Amino acid sequence: MDVDLARCNGCGVCVDACPVSAIAIAEQKEEWRDEKGRRRTRRRWAVRDADLCLGCGTCHGACKFGAIQMTPREQRVLTPESTFDRVVSMAIERGKLAGLVFDDPEKLSHRALGRVISVLQNSPPAKAALAVRPLRSAFLTALVGTAQQQAGEMKEDLG
């Protein structure tokens, strides 16, 4: 996201629209002249925090002055649909997913599994993918098996 300073008047609509509070309003209180030569003493404009910005474009849609232009990012970012999605996304980005999922340090299982997730998060992507593949297969197999079992029970109840 880039802000066209000639169009932005610092109204704050984009600040309210941003789902992750990545935009703030900056203010300059000095004497200056606008594009028409009029003397001004205050200028406001939107500023984006690149570390927080998801690149979702809600600010672009909210700006009535066309001051916000979206620019492609190196990596695609998914917009969280709920607070839960937002918290999980932030934990993943900051390498804190283990602490979020396994939050009881008194339990040995939480400490052990939290450590496993921490190691996976800090591993190179190829190595992490190799470690996750067998877990994903076992998880999906169990999930599909449970769903099939429940569907069979529902069919018997209805039949």
Task: Give a brief rundown of this model.
With 159 residues, this protein is α+β, with helices and mostly antiparallel strands. It has six helices and six strands; from the N terminus they run βαββββαβαααα.
How would you describe this structure to a colleague?
The chain folds into two domains: 2-69, Alpha-Beta Plaits, CATH 3.30.70; 83-158, no CATH class. The chain has helices at residues 13-17, 58-62, 83-93, 97-101, 108-121, 125-158, and strands at 2-3, 23-28, 32-33, 39-40, 43-48, 68-69. The strands form three sheets. A two-stranded antiparallel ribbon has the order 1-6. A two-stranded antiparallel sheet has the order 2-5. A two-stranded antiparallel ribbon has the order 3-4. It has six helices and six strands, in the order βαββββαβαααα. It is of the alpha+beta class and 159 residues long. It is elongated and about 75 Å long.
Strand content: 5-15%
Number of strands: 6
- Uncertain regions: pLDDT < 50 for 5+ in a row? none
**Average pLDDT over all residues:** 79
What is the count of helical runs? 6
Shape: elongated
Structural class: alpha+beta
User: What strand line-up does the widest sheet have?
Assistant: 1-6
The total domain count is: 2
The value of Rg in angstroms is 24 Å
**First-last Cα distance:** 56 Å
Q: What proportion of the residues is helical, as a percent range? A: 40-55%
H/E element order: EHEEEEHEHHHH
Q: Main beta sheet, described? A: 2 strands, antiparallel
